[in-house]
Amino acid sequence: MDDTTDRIEQHLTTLFRRVQKIHVFTSHGEFALDRSGYGLLCRIADEGPQRLGSFATAFGLDPSTITRQVQALERAGLAERQPDPDDRRAALLSLTDEGRTAVLETRAHRRRRLEQVLADWSPEDRRDFARLVAQFNESTDRLISAEHAADS
């Protein structure tokens, strides 16, 4: 490993801590979502209702962990299971009206905070950062998919 990789790893560690702080500080109002619940709700909002197994695959978590997280969202009235029209034996998790509101309000609040963080960045730096974060996420997904395929 070279010095650049070392620096990236150190900065990622700091970034993860900062992101956690942003999440804690942006849980507000009547929607105090934990990080995992927020992630599940955002995935549904972005991609539509899904089977629980798709969450386990997407987040690299054990299905029992996803089940517990989903149950918490259902108890809070933010998500609900409905029969899968393609396979009545399966269920799809979808947002309730309250869940949709929670995602919209929490995202708006988080994005306002992000605007504050990036206030002194140039538009070019913002575009570069967005591109590089997306590239990093795509590379990470490819690696995880390859490792998952090798384990199967």
From TrEMBL:
Residues 1-138 form the HTH marR-type domain. SUPFAM superfamilies: Winged helix' DNA-binding domain. PROSITE patterns: HTH_MARR_2. SMART domains: HTH_MARR. It comes from the Bacteria. The keyword Iron does not apply. Gene3D superfamilies: Winged helix-like DNA-binding domain superfamily/Winged helix DNA-binding domain. This is DNA-binding MarR family transcriptional regulator. The lineage of its organism: Bacteria, Bacillati, Actinomycetota, Actinomycetes, Propionibacteriales.
